[in-house]
Amino acid sequence: MKYTGEQIKVVLDEKSYRFFDKNKPYNLNIIGVRSNNEIANSFDDWLYLIYRDEALALKIYEFPVTTDPGAYWLRNPLNVNGTAILVPGQYTGSHHIGLHQGKYEALRQKGPLKVWRDNNKDTQIDKGGKVYEGIFGINIHRSNAHSASTIVEKWSAGCQVFKNVKDFNLFMEICRRSSKIYGNSFTYTLLEESDF
Hints:
This protein is α+β, with helices and mostly antiparallel strands. It is built from 3 helices and 11 strands.
């Protein structure tokens, strides 16, 4: 495990972000950590899921993901302003369980998020510049439906995407349990490796 729950909590505290706990089960913390690598197409980021189980024992999972768009969409932006790159931050109630592209259950964006737009059509992740805020379809979903993907390419046009379908299925099972207790609303927090 790259980071412990305590290390993550320290960064959240430094940024005055909420950590959901209250000693209750399935009060989820969904936290992405973007790696320092700025070349596209790798599942080189992490998604942490931290919560308490039914026995109130603290659980932490670390899943390989990408928080960046794949090279295909960087070279072929869907938006005239460029391809979306999620700006780090805590986005309260930003996602809910719904269908990704009408095909399968994932966490769909329901609240406004902030993105940068990369429009120079190379495979370098360009962060910074003008910030756009709105509903852009920045979902949290899987890549390959049957196994693990090795490169990102078309799997992400700005979404947060799981490398391994087994990890994603476990993640969604836990999200469904949480939604039965707290409702269908999830906060997503994106940190950077340089925060640690």
